[in-house]
Amino acid sequence: MRLEEVAALQGHEELRVWHIAWSPSGATLASCGEDKTIRLWGRHGATEQDGGGWCCQAVLEEGHQRTIRCVAWSPDTRFLASCSFDGTASVWECIENEFDCVASLEGHENEVKGVAWAASGSLLATCGRDKAVFIWEAEDENFEVAAVMHSHTQDVKCVAWHPHEDILASSSYDDTIRLYSRAPGDDDWRCTSTLSGHTSTVWCVCFTADGRGILSASDDRSIILWEKQGELYSEAARLSEVHERAIYTLSWTGSTAHGLVAAGSSDDAISITQVALSSTNNPASLRKDGMQPSAHQGDVNCVAWRPLPEDQQDAASMVGRVVASAGDDGMVRLWRCVEGEASDTMHLD
After folding, report:
1. Distance CA 295, CA 290 (A)
2. What CDD domains does UniProt report for this protein, alphabetically (predicted)?
3. Angle at the Cα of 220 (from 215 to 224), degrees rounded to 5?
4. CB 181 within 8 A of CB 233
5. Which of 17, 37, 235, 240 stands the most exposed, by the fewest C-beta atoms within 10 Å?
6. How is 199-217 classified by DSSP, letter by letter?
């Protein structure tokens, strides 16, 4: 298997594109960056097979005063959330393909680095440089603070929700991952677990398809798979020296037991790693499958697998799956997994 570039999307007016997020259907890709805008990309006049025809269909402006660091779709695609170095998060509502900024969430003391929706669509999480994690309760266009947690001792880089439960993970400059939840019948959120294993900043964290596993990436150039045993997650597998420099971003695609994790790094490359969760007869494992060097002319800030249709989500084959990437070169790129040996720019282990 190798990666094949199928589209290069250019439009952001400043070089750094920070983040990308697919809509739940995979029909629209949102990107954001230093130019203080969100761009929405979709396909026009092309088939799924040729991979082309992607263009910018809308630009969302005036929601933020500084760099937009992260975007996230609500599960029903009705809302798009964004967060910014201006210390706020914004919520955009889509009505008949028109987006309006319907809420500005204030509370963080400075730069907001991450935003994520819970699977229920009723909770939104944000995190930032102020070492805080906020959980907001969402009801239509109204958002109220449900909890503010100061469990981390340094800048919080990323927040990610469990795919089915109200369990939140965050990663930080303090080299740890924290997990938050509520006890049954209790409205109070609390930090329930701290995962320590990385030796430097944990830039990104994501859950596997059923939430049994958590994947994390770090400045220490490693990827760790944590598996849930009983009520707690513990380290199940580790892959060291995946990249030559810090790993900034991770994205998972696959079934409940096996999948691929794409990673992007400050070495300008994208890596692909095979993930197998533990089974009765086999321990969990991480196996590096390949490396796409010079994926961008600069840091790879975000990677995101395009969602599969519901009837294909458990498909064993990874061929044809599409991963998007965003980088410091101002570009958003789309790559497709195809059969065959690696080209000169794809080195298999």
Report:
1. 13
2. WD40 (cd00200)
3. 20
4. no
5. 240
6. SS-EEEEEE-TTSSEEEEE
In angstroms, what CA-CA distances link 33 with 16, 71, 170, 219, 330? 6, 10, 22, 22, 8
Q: How far is it, in rounded angstroms, from Cα 274 to Cα 208?
A: 12
Mind listing the pLDDT tens digit for each residue in 221-240?
Answer: 999 999 999 889 999 999 99
Least confident range of 136-140, 176-180, 210-214: 136-140
pLDDT in tens, 99-157: 999 999 999 999 999 999 999 999 999 999 999 999 999 988 899 999 999 999 999 99
Residues 115 and 127: their CA atoms lie apart, in Å, by 7
Closest by Cα among 194, 248, 195, 196 to 221: 248
pTM: predicted TM-score of the whole model, two decimal places:
0.93
Backbone angles phi, psi at 283, to 5 degrees: -75, 165
CB 4 within 8 A of CB 334: no
